[in-house]
Amino acid sequence: MLGDGDFRSLSEEELVEKAKEIPHAFGYLYEIYIDKIYNFIFYRTFDRDVSEDLTHTVFEKVLTNIKSYQKGTSSFAAWIFRIARNQLIDYYRKKKSLPLSEEMESKLFSEDDLLAQLVKGEKQEKVFMAVSNLSKDQREVINLRYKEDLSNKEIAQIIGRSEGAVKAILHRAVENLRRRLNHEES
User: What are the residue boundaries of the RNA polymerase sigma factor 70 region 4 type domain, all occurrences included (predicted)?
Assistant: First the structure.
């Protein structure tokens, strides 16, 4: 039997494999992802109770289905964020609020938290405005890439698009931001 120190020394993928056999190991995965998943959901619902409930549901699904996770098909991060994204979609479908209004869509894919970390001082408001003018897809990809620090491959698996499409969306988003910010400065 592995002790706590042994679990902490494992790589994430090794920890996932152990969690398939030893439920106690799942607790370490939970610690790694709880804040990331909660924030991912909260910045799309802006409701603490709903975010807590959906986060709980995500981890129930992860625990129930962890044995079906296969290392070669996607990273664990992509897999768990995909589950979180699907829970959000289910939540809004059950509320019968899809299709979303422009205002709500903008809130669901808000980048305020990400940009607060990336930009300091007076430029912050300009960056927020520039991001709010991006398309929903561009905002989502920017969020997953820079806030959640996921790879293009992982993002592609989460949003159900090709890696090339993610690269193109990300490139257009960055170019749009650069163009808007340069225009604001001149």
Answer: 127-177
Pick the CATH number of 109-186 from 1.10.287.3510, 1.10.10.10, 3.40.120.10, 2.30.40.10: 1.10.10.10
From residue 162, give the alpha-carbon distance in Å to each of 12, 167, 169.
25, 9, 11
Q: Using one digit for the tens of pLDDT, what is the confidence trace for 22-34? A: 988 999 999 999 9
Hey, how many other C-beta atoms are within 10 angstroms of the C-beta on 160?
A: 9
Which of 43, 185, 35, 40 is CA-nearest to residue 104? 43
* CB atoms near residue 155 (< 10 Å): 25
